Amino acid sequence: MTVPELDPAVLRRRAADALRTARARTHALTGCVDGRELTAQHSPLMSPLVWDLAHIGNQEEQWLLRTVGGREALRPEIDSVYDAFEHPRAERPRLPLLAPEEARGYAADVRDRVLDVLERVPLAGAPLLEAGFAFGMIAQHEQQHDETMLITHQLRRGPAVLSAPEPPGAAPDAASLPAEVLVEGGPFTMGTSAEPWALDNERPAHTRFVPAYFLDTLPVSNGAYLRFVEDGGYADARWWRPAGREQVRRHGLAAPLFWRREGGGWVRRRFGVEEPVPLDEPVLHVSWYEAAAYAAWAGRRLPTEAEWEKAARHDPGSGLSRRYPWGDADPSPDRANLGQRHLRPAPVGAYAAGASPLGVRQLIGDVWEWTSSDFLPYPGFRAFPYREYSEVFFGEAHKVLRGGSFAVDPVACRGTFRNWDLPVRRQIFAGFRTARDAEPS
Q1: Position 6 pLDDT exceeds 80
Q2: Which one, 174, 275, 413, 434, has least CB within 10 Å?
Q3: Does the residue 242 lie in any domain?
Q4: DSSP conformation class of 74
Q5: Which HAMAP family match (predicted)?
Q6: Pairing of strands 265-270, 395-402
Q7: How large is the average pLDDT for residues 384-410?
Q8: Same domain, yes or no, for 355 and 212?
C-alpha cells in the first residue's frame, strides 16, 4: 500500500484485494492435493495443511467478525483446536480437526461475512480500524500461513503438484557488478511510524547510528557456498559456533537441506523435482549457524539487522529512509521476486530495477536473509494488538531475517518487515549475504 493512503473507498478496495489474493493462494496450495495429503503431517516441523486452512478461517473469524464486526461467534468450540500457542505443530494431527471440506466451507463462510463487515465498518476512529489495519493484519496472517504451507509442500515427498514460470535471468551487467559496496557511517531512520499496515515489531520509527561497513552487492550464491562445502567447511570447527557445531555433529550435516551428492556433482529436491544445484542462484535452506560459518570461512560476518535495513532503505542523497530499496512505490514484477510468482529464487544479479541507491540488489524477495541480530523490541515498542504476535518471541533465542523470499507476498514484505526464527531452522526459504567492517580512515 502506498503511503499515505487514507481515502476510505481506496482502503476498502485494497483490503478486499489483499484478502482475495491471499485466499486464492490458499486455495491453490490446498486444492492441488487430495484429502489424505491434506490431513497428513509431512514433517513434525509443520502442521497438516488442513490445520492451516481452518486456522486461517478461525483467526479471521475471531479478529474481523467478532472483534471488529461485533458479530456472534460462528464456531467458538474450535478456538482451542486452532490456537497456535496451545498446541505445538507436532501434536496437531492428533487434534479433532475439521475435515478438508468442512474446513473449506468454514473459511469460505467466514470470508463472505468479513467482506460484508469491511463494507460497513469505519476505517478510522480506533487503532484496529485505522486505515483498515485489522484487515491488513489478517491478509498478512493468511499470506504468512501460505508461506508455511509452501514450506510443507517442499518437505512433502511425492510427485510435483505445483508449477510456475521460471524467474528472469541475471541482468546483463551482473558479471561486472562490484562484489561489495561501502555504506557510509552515520544515522538513519529505522522502523516506521507511518506504514499503515506495519506490525507492532516494526514500530516505532527511531534514529539508529551505524558505523561504516561493506555489504555484499548480491546474496551468496550456491556456487560460492559450494566452495565452502568442498573446502571441508562443515568439518572444520574453526568456523562454527558451539551450538552450530553440535547441530552438524548430531544431524550429520554436510550441505544445505535438500542437497545430495550424485556422481561428481550435487543435486537438490525442489517441490518434488530432482535437479542439479543451480550455481548462480542464491543459496537456500541454510540455518543461521551455516550462514555464520560460511561468513567466518570467507573472512567476513553476517550483517546486523540495522546494517541490513540501512542498506535497504536509506537514500544517501536525500538522507531519508524509503519503503523499499528502489523507493516508495509498491513492489512490481520487474523489481522483486515475490508472491510465489516463481517457485525458486532468480539468479544473483537479477532485478536491476529493484537495486538500492548504492547498487545493492535482491534485498527484497528471492530469499530471506539471516542477520546477526537477536529479535529484540525497538525503543518505545508497544505490543499491539496482542502480545503473542511479537513480544513473547523477543530475546536471544531467535535471530532476525529480513527481505522476504519468493514465497512471500508483497503485503507481508517491506523494508521494515521483520521475520525471526530459531538459528537451527533450515526448512525455511532462507539464505544470506555477508558484510565486513570498514577500516577507520
Answers
A1: no
A2: 275
A3: yes
A4: S
A5: EgtB
A6: unpaired
A7: 97
A8: yes
21 CB-near residues (< 8 Å, 6+ apart)? 139, 409, 411
Flag whether 92 is marked binding. yes
Contact 221, 177 (CB under 8 A): no
102 and 208 within one domain? no
How many structural domains is the chain composed of? 2
How many Cα neighbours within 13 Å face the side chain of 133?
Answer: 17
The verdict on residue 343 lying in a domain is yes
CATH number at 22 reads 1.20.120.450
pLDDT band at 1 (very low <50, low <70, confident <90, very high): very low
| pLDDT tens per residue, range 312-358 | 999 999 999 999 999 999 999 999 999 999 999 999 999 999 999 99
CA distances to 58, 356, 419 from 423, in Å = 30, 28, 12
Evaluate whether 286 touches 435 at the Cβ level (below 8 Å).
Answer: no
Is 425 annotated as ligand-binding?
A: yes
Range of the domain at 81: 8-155
3-state SS, residue 399: strand
User: Which of these three, 97, 126, 155, is where a domain ends?
Assistant: 155
Peptide bond into 4 cis (omega under 30): yes
Query: Does 90 count as an annotated binding residue?
Result: yes
One domain for residues 391 and 319: yes
Same domain, 260 and 295: yes
Query: pLDDT averaged over the chain?
Result: 97
User: Was 91 annotated as part of a binding site?
Assistant: yes
Residue 145 is labelled as binding a ligand:
yes
Q: What is the pLDDT of residue 5?
A: 55
Q: Is residue 3 part of a domain?
A: no
Same domain (yes/no): 210, 354: yes
Mean of the pLDDT values across residues 239-251? 98
Is 153 labeled as ligand-binding? no
Among 155, 185, 203, the domain-final residue is 155
Burial classification of residue 272, based on how many CB atoms lie within 10 Å of its CB (0-12 exposed, 13-18 middle, 19 or more buried) = middle
55 is an annotated ligand-binding site residue: yes
Please check whether residues 208 and 247 belong to one and the same domain: yes
